[in-house]
Amino acid sequence: MEAFIENHVLNQILRQAKHVLDAEQRVNDMKVKQEFAYYSLNKAEKAFESLKNPQLELLKPLVSIKNEADFNHFKDSLEPYCIPFQPITEAQLKKLFKKAKKLHPPHLTPDDFLHLTYLSWYDKGSMKKFIVRELEGSVKGLSGSFVPSPQNGICHFCHHMGAVGLFTVDVKTDTKNHNYKALSNYICQDEANCNAHITDTEKLDFLFDYVRGK
Predict the structure, then answer these.
(1) Which of 16, 33, 85, 191 could disulfide-link 44, Cβ–Cβ 3.0 to 4.6 Å?
(2) Please, what are the domains in the chain?
(3) Rounded mean pLDDT of 17-25?
């Protein structure tokens, strides 16, 4: 069976699995626990447009999670079927960000690429954050200013509470007159933490479409 689980979808599935584990530990009524487990499985299945029988079978153990060991076993069983982020070289990154004088992308291992919805890093020297996303079969990049916030907030991408910063991109609206329009959102300071919590790509993809003028 080929890999079929994107990172943000994996996060959705594991969130439902965690709900089942929490219910197992907090709810006494067996019928309620069972119904909730199948409800959670249904939500996990709906994270996909369609599933074949072997893929459905892979998700079924979600309803049988009773303890932390079961949860970890279920999580490990999904790993071989996760779609990794497309490997990208420093030379490719330089082509994506031609205007950047110096790039300091993170050094990632092959395992790191398994759990990325987007690749990102913050350059303190330029106070810019760079974001790379695979869209429509190719890798796209955008960059913008990033100002870390002294207070925790909700990330625009993953909707998780934590350390955030104001990310601003300037989009040219009139080439002739050099007019720009800024779009700002608070996003996670820690890219790894964001990738571990993101469960949908709507806001992230909208940002790329906005920058590309779609």
Answers:
(1) 16
(2) 7-81 (1.20.1280.250), 90-211 (no CATH)
(3) 97
